[in-house]
Design goal:
The chain is an alpha/beta fold and 283 residues long. It has helices spanning 16-27, 43-52, 65-71, 77-82, 102-113, 129-141, 152-161, 226-233, 243-258, 264-273; strands spanning 2-8, 31-37, 55-60, 74-75, 87-90, 96-99, 121-125, 144-148, 169-171, 188-191, 214-217, 238-240.
């Protein structure tokens, strides 16, 4: 049976094996998809051993997406311009092909939710691999992005990375409150920090939460994430966690490996109806 895996740390919460099992059942493809918790500083060794032992493809999650980029022999354009990799495939020539399906997966989910238009002003919280992986697709779609991060230099570094494609604004968190620095009315806030994984809330001012704003968290849980709970408490009506993105990006990975695109809308609908009992979802 063909072997695939998701690599990360932490990885216990990942729903990727369930989603890929649903894809396999839907498309009639036989595969084995597992979780691999990788100790920090052992990613390269771990994934190379996986491929030596018969692995054909892998998804990469926090915090290894930048490291995954470095081990690839070839890259798709999405991966090349993003600078991070979340999907890997071993080619027929035994080369490591890297792709980034996060951005296109997020964009598809945001479109499905009607959270985005080409001129949307997006406030992106976070400057790690998760944030970097979604920027290219958003700017290709025509959005305007402002990045804030706990470490200002990291936000500046990402803006510099993408400067030849499109200008990206970056601010210190405290400057969000000052009109002289920040004159933008944001349409969408995307939380790409790991705060929700740790039960925390990003440090942003309440004044950003306008009644008509959309709020999206890349993280997902059985109930609203801490960030989304905070948004709802302060009057935001249009919110979503990242389960739709997770399923959409997984579908693009599945397509890269097998050449077949699953019916994601069907999976998302069933997932949301069975959030507490997803293992019993059937086609």
């Amino acid at each position: 049976m063909k072997l695939f895996a998701v690599f990360g740390n932490p990885i216990k919460h990942s729903k990727s094996p369930i989603i890929h099992k649903l894809f396999a059942k839907q498309t009639g493809i036989s595969q084995n998809y597992i979780k691999i918790n990788v100790p920090i500083n052992f990613f390269s060794k771990s994934i190379i051993n996986f491929f030596k032992n018969g692995g054909l493809g892998a998804n990469i999650t926090i915090p290894f997406k930048r490291e995954a980029y470095k081990i690839c022999d070839t890259l798709t354009n999405r991966a090349k311009y993003s600078g991070v990799v979340n999907t890997i495939k071993i080619t027929s020539c035994k080369k490591i092909l890297g792709d980034n399906t996060d951005g296109i997966g997020l964009l598809k989910d945001l479109n499905n939710l009607n959270f985005i238009i080409p001129k949307s002003n997006i406030l992106l919280l976070g400057a790690g691999g998760a944030a970097q992986g979604i920027i290219y697709s958003l700017i290709q779609f025509g959005c305007n992005i402002t990045i804030i991060n706990r470490t200002y230099q990291h936000a500046k570094n990402i803006a510099e990375y993408f400067k030849n494609i499109k200008k990206i604004n970056y601010l210190r968190i405290e400057n969000l409150l000052h009109h002289s620095f920040n004159q933008i009315h944001y349409d969408l806030i995307i939380n790409a920090t790991s705060s929700s994984m740790n039960g925390n809330i990003p440090n942003i001012p309440l004044s950003i939460l306008k009644p008509d704003i959309f709020c999206y968290d890349l993280f997902y849980d059985k109930e609203n994430t801490p960030f989304l709970k905070w948004c709802v408490f302060h009057g935001v009506k249009n919110i979503s966690d990242g389960i739709g993105m997770l399923i959409e990006q997984a579908a693009y990975a599945f397509y890269l490996w097998h050449g077949i695109m699953p019916n994601t809308k069907k999976i998302i609908r069933k997932y949301k109806k069975n959030i507490f009992n997803i293992s019993n979802i059937s086609d």
